[in-house]
Design a protein that fits this description.
67% helix; 187 residues; mainly alpha
C-alpha cells in the first residue's frame, strides 16, 4: 500500500505521538549535539540540525502504534526471521520517502563532522536499528529494501555535503603567488 504526499499531514494528525516525539527528539538530540560539538571538533549549527534530522527519522519510523513483542521477545535472530526482502524500486512514494528519510541527518552530520564515510556507516546502523525495532515490536514491517533505500539516502546526503564543502573550499582558497590575482592586478 502506497501513500500520497498530500496524506502525510492527515497521517501525522492521526498519530500525535509522532510530531511530539519529533519535537522532543529535536530538543534532546539537538541539545546533545550542541554540547558535544565543541568537544568533538564539530561545527555546532549543522550538528544540531543533524540531531533534528535523526529525530525526524526516528519519529516517523519507530514511534507508531506497536503491536506486541514477538514470541521470541527482543531476540535479534528471531526478529531477523520476521524481515522480508522486498524489491528495490522508486516507483512508489513510500519508497522515495525511505530514500530521503536519513538524507537530512547525513547531510548535516557530514557538514558538522567532515567525516562522510563515518556518517554513511552510521546511517546503516540507524536503519538497521529501525528495521529491528519494527520487527521486534510489530510497529512496522522489517524490510531489506527499506534498509537499502535508507542507506542510499544517507550516502546521497553525505555526497551532497561533500560537494558543498568542496565548493566552499574552492571559493575561500587564497590567491597564490603562482597565479595572477585577476584582471587589473598589479604584479
Amino acid at each position: 500500500m502506497d501513500i500520497e504526499l498530500a496524506d502525510l499531514p492527515r497521517k501525522a494528525a492521526a498519530h500525535p505521538a509522532v510530531p511530539v516525539f519529533f519535537v522532543v527528539g529535536c530538543l534532546l538530540l539537538g541539545a546533545a549535539a550542541w554540547w558535544l560539538a565543541p568537544r568533538r571538533g564539530w561545527v555546532r549549527g549543522p550538528a544540531v540540525l543533524a540531531g533534528c534530522g535523526l529525530a525526524l527519522a526516528l519519529a516517523v519510523t519507530v514511534v507508531r502504534p506497536a503491536g506486541h513483542f514477538s514470541a521470541a521477545g527482543l531476540d535479534p535472530f528471531s526478529a531477523l526471521q520476521e524481515c522480508v526482502a522486498g524489491s528495490l524500486s522508486l516507483a512508489r512514494t513510500y519508497e522515495k520517502l525511505n530514500v530521503v528519510m536519513l538524507l537530512p541527518f547525513a547531510f548535516f552530520a557530514t557538514l558538522a563532522t567532515r567525516r562522510p564515510v563515518l556518517v554513511a556507516a552510521s546511517c546503516l546502523l540507524v536503519s538497521g536499528f529501525v528495521e529491528y525495532v519494527q520487527a521486534a515490536t510489530g510497529g512496522g514491517t522489517c524490510q531489506g529494501r527499506d534498509l537499502v533505500h535508507n542507506i542510499i539516502g544517507g550516502v546521497l546526503g553525505a555526497v551532497l555535503s561533500v560537494v558543498l564543502l568542496g565548493r566552499q573550499t574552492r571559493r575561500s582558497e587564497p590567491i597564490t603567488a603562482g597565479r595572477p590575482a585577476g584582471p587589473g592586478s598589479s604584479r
